[in-house]
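PROTEIN DATA CARD
Card holder: Glycosyl transferase family 2
Chain length: 309
Origin: Kaistella jeonii
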Amino acid sequence: MKKISVVIPAHNEEGNIFLIHQRIKDVFSKLENYHFEIIFVNDGSRDQTQAKIEELAKQFEEVKFIEFSRNFGHQPAVKAGIDSSNANAVISMDADLQHPPELIPELIEKWEEGFDIVYTIRTYPKEISAFKRRTSSLYYKFLSKISDVNLREGGGSDFRLMDSSVVDVVRNMNEADIFLRGLSNWMGFRQTGIRFTAGERASGESSYNLQKMMRFAFTGITAFSVKPLYLAAYLGFIFSAIAVLGYGIYVIHSFVSQTEISGWASLIMTVVFFGGLQLIILGIIGIYLGKIFKQVKERPNYIIRSKNF
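Structure generated from the sequence above:
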């Protein structure tokens, strides 16, 4: 019998806890030679998520839980479940049922074929707006271009299976701003992907607003590359060269045409433009300095308030 751990981070998911447990249990009831456990990671929920998980844990021995002392974020929650697992393979998935548990047999099948990481490639249903599809596609293309990882479009989902050998590597990592989607690609190993169509959220509302999505995007970009720093340096050289060349041409034109050098409006706009460019470059440098600042303090990715195993 091989053991599979299913890690599920949960933040304000009280309406989905019983549903996802039942669907996972139904899936494994049809699989022979496998037994499973579900590790719920309560990421500082403000509703009755913890109470629902504890109620479920009293009824079913396969249900385990980790409760954070506060909200630490989705990625630390996934890592906490991975760190605490003790199985032949670990499957991470979200609690909102947009990751269909019915795909688990396919993940296990690919794992049994010899793949160490089986990731999923998400496709959106027709109901999803064209704007979300387009922005998601552009993000993954941009991330692949500007960083040292090559995430396939739709392949950034946290719905994946990892072999115990991969889990050991992840467990020993101690990055302050952990980005598991990129780490999964960066680590190598034998990998393959499975396509799936994201389902609708069973209940509740997504806590991923635009601000969190932008922060997550910056984390992904800066976690695996220093190319933005090189880009900032290149921009500095390019615009400096343009400014020197343009001003030289303007001075020569003024001598030839016997006109005065004037135009305070254009001068102010130029100053404002280059001032903004400098702030952007300083912001990029500041992001990297902030990551170094957080890393050298060596604070843990999460703090556990309670657990039942």
